[in-house]
Amino acid sequence: MKLLTVAIPCYISESxxxxxxxTALCGGEEIEILLVNDGSTDKTAEIADRLAAExxxxxxxxxxxxxxxxxxxxxxxxxxxxIYYKVLDSDDWFDEQALIxxxxxxxxxxxxxxxxxxFLANYVYEKPSLQKHKAIRYGGVFPQxxxxxxxxxxxxxxxxxxxxxxxIYRTELLRDCKLQLPLHTFYVDNIFVYNPLPYVxxxxxxxxDLYRYFIGREDQSVNEKxxxxxxxxxxxxxxxxxxxxxxxxxxxxxxxLKKYMRIYLSKIMTVPxxxxxxxxxxxxxxxxxxxxxYLKEHAPEDYKALRGGLFGIAxxxxxxxGRKLAIGAYRAARxxxxxx
Length: 340
Hints:
With 340 residues, the protein is of the alpha/beta class. Helices cover 46% and strands 19% of the residues. It has 13 helices and ten strands. Helix 2 links the parallel strand 2 (31-38) and strand 3 (59-64). Helix 8 (231-246) packs parallel to helix 10 (282-298), helix 9 runs antiparallel to helix 10 (282-298) and helix 10 (282-298) crosses helix 11. The longest helix is centred in the C-terminal third of the chain and has 25 residues, at 255-279. It is globular.
């Protein structure tokens, strides 16, 4: 059994996937790298096979029909032999020294007969076109270098959130919660993080900048125009997360878990709401109202809390003037959080 499985979903990734792989190889024989070729039409499959032949005890190539990012993550999880599971997008990369430190900590868990459900590290927005980078760290939110629980979690700032980039899950936890991401859908990384949270009891935070998140391609899923064009996929993800929240019985769970899941949902509700406000068409504004109606019907307690909160009020200000104020607040928040 490997210590850590790193799944790298690859779709038309010939120009950058090797860099991602190179930064993961420093994990040595205790790491497993799964190159999941999601029906690419370029040389991705050929490169994956070559890399697997060059590193047969570390790298495996998995070839499948195109099903989208979520489908590739599912395939990686189905084939993972590591105790822990991490997703690395093919245009992103690891800081190698940070990965070595993370691996040492995970090895220590195994040696001591301990373990955690969720391991957290920092991630860094990288925008080479502007020669800028911005690290998202969790100082003041999580205790450092110790195993902790939800009751130990502090207050999150606006710029802080648990994302796929920052999280490493225990593989069996993901299987126990029957995680399955929808096919042909972008933004499923939010489901990957969110759905398992109620199963998480123990955590560990290492203050290293492990994950380097590339920002800047025009076709990237976080590009604003792309996001508006894929709004129906965002809505699909949003509703799946609402269903997860609405189905929870928090009576026997730590209240800090409920608080965080509600904060996360609030931020995710804001994204499609804001994209639909930016679109401005009557059909788009009707879709925005539908999302909030769905929340009211499927998670009424959370609707009451979110609708009366800062994000909820901003996203539902009436009339053209209200939408203009919401857009101004959104632009300011983007500048504060980073440069995506």
